[in-house]
């Protein structure tokens, strides 16, 4: 049993040396107990460090000296005792020594305890900055990316040259670790994700199971309505929006295949719930069809009409229906205004007979869409597409409002029907 064997070696063989060294670095706390964790721990006190040197010189030829001094390095690393760690390294502490239980190296432990100065010391002395532990296959950078509190270590590791795109055997990179570790209320790794992206993290990274950078955003958004309070849901929505901004700014494609990993496809299926995020995606240049296979794979227009008809056939609330049709209309115009030529699936038809409300409006929207596909593009449409393209990147609203144009034309360019009904301009 390797764990028991390792434990026995600590207790019966080199633990006395470790205890003596750590005891020299500790000072009594208020209750007279020796404490390494207390603020009074004088790791830089010369007399303490001199005493540590004397013990190491005395024990240098003793049995299990190497294991003892190396395990002591693990302990002082956890506590951030830089001068003590320097002495232990001077006296032969092994940088690759693994904790007998966790199998973490001193560098892993320094990151877990958020000790950036110790991280730098260990790397400067030759610690493998990209080494993975034997249990979880986590690199120091992976561990640093998983908690916002470890941001100083993440920053230090990147500065020291850690491989930002190194992946474990499952293909998981530090960026995917940071995204996967983000949850409802405790961990929002926005700053860690930003640092990794600025450090060159590949937004196209994917695990062997097919998880991408958007998998975790989709998961959080999908769970938002079912698992969290209103306040938590709003926090998650803000987090997902900010992370999506960062990912798109660094070249991520939210409209890639498969549809299950496409953030655009996910938002289209429930556009009423995720309308601000969907609007951002489209105004940032995201394709409204599958970016790899086109509308034959999945089409934003088909999903939008399907969503409209499904909800309008099942809910008899007039206020809800009016809001839905308004957002649907805006969404269709956003997609139409994103390109000069409309791309629809072949033989695309819409059945509005089941709609309890606004069936005629849905049919009108569909007919105008088909007409736009079949006919030469109107000048106003071409102008809107051209101007909106020129005003990117997102957001374009303030830029449109600043244009020296009549309000009626600004309204047409804005594509915002929240305050007014649609009129053909």
TrEMBL record:
SUPFAM superfamilies: Ankyrin repeat, SOCS box-like
Domain SOCS box: start-end pairs: 364-413
GO biological process, one term: protein ubiquitination
Swiss-Prot/TrEMBL keywords: ANK repeat
Pathway as given in its UniProt record: Protein modification; protein ubiquitination
Pfam families xref list: Ank (PF00023), Ank_4 (PF13637), SOCS_box (PF07525)
Annotated PROSITE patterns: ANK_REP_REGION, ANK_REPEAT, SOCS
ANK repeats: 102-134, 136-169, 170-208
Signal peptide: none
Protein name: SOCS box domain-containing protein
């Amino acid at each position: 049993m390797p764990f028991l064997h390792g434990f026995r070696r600590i207790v019966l063989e080199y633990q006395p040396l470790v205890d003596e060294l750590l005891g020299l670095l500790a000072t009594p706390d208020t209750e007279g107990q020796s404490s390494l964790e207390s603020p009074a721990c004088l790791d830089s006190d010369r007399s303490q460090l001199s005493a540590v040197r004397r013990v190491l010189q005395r024990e240098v030829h003793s049995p299990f000296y190497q294991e003892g001094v190396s395990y002591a390095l693990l302990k002082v690393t956890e506590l951030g005792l830089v001068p003590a760690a320097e002495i232990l390294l001077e006296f032969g502490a092994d940088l690759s020594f693994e904790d007998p239980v966790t199998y973490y190296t001193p560098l892993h432990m320094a990151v877990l305890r958020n000790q950036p100065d110790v991280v730098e010391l260990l790397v400067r002395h030759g610690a493998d900055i990209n080494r993975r532990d034997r249990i979880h296959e986590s690199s120091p950078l992976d561990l640093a990316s998983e908690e916002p509190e470890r941001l100083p270590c993440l920053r230090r590791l990147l500065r020291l040259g850690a491989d930002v795109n190194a992946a474990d055997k499952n293909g998981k990179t530090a960026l995917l670790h940071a995204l996967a570790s983000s949850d409802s209320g405790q961990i929002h790794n926005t700053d860690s994700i930003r640092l990794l992206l600025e450090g060159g993290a590949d937004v196209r990274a994917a695990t062997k199971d097919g998880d991408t950078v958007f998998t975790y955003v989709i998961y959080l958004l999908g769970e938002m309505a079912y698992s969290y309070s209103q306040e938590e849901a709003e926090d998650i929505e803000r987090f997902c929006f900010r992370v999506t901004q960062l990912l798109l700014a660094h070249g991520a494609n939210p409209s890639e295949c498969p549809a299950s990993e496409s953030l655009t496809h996910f938002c289209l299926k429930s556009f009423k719930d995720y309308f601000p995020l969907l609007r951002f995606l489209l105004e940032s240049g995201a394709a409204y069809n599958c970016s790899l296979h086109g509308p034959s794979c999945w089409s934003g227009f088909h999903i939008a009409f399907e969503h409209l008809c499904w909800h309008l056939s099942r809910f008899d609330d007039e206020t809800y229906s009016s809001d839905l049709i308004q957002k649907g209309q805006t969404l269709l115009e956003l997609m139409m205004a994103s390109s000069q030529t409309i791309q629809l699936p072949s033989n695309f038809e819409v059945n509005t007979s089941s709609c309890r409300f606004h069936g005629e409006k849905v049919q009108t929207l569909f007919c105008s869409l088909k007409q736009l596909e079949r006919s030469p593009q109107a000048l106003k449409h071409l102008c809107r597409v051209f101007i909106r393209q020129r005003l990117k990147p997102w957001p374009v609203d303030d830029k449109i409002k600043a244009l020296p144009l009549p309000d009626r034309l600004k309204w047409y360019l804005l594509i915002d029907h929240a305050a007014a009904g649609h009129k053909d301009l």
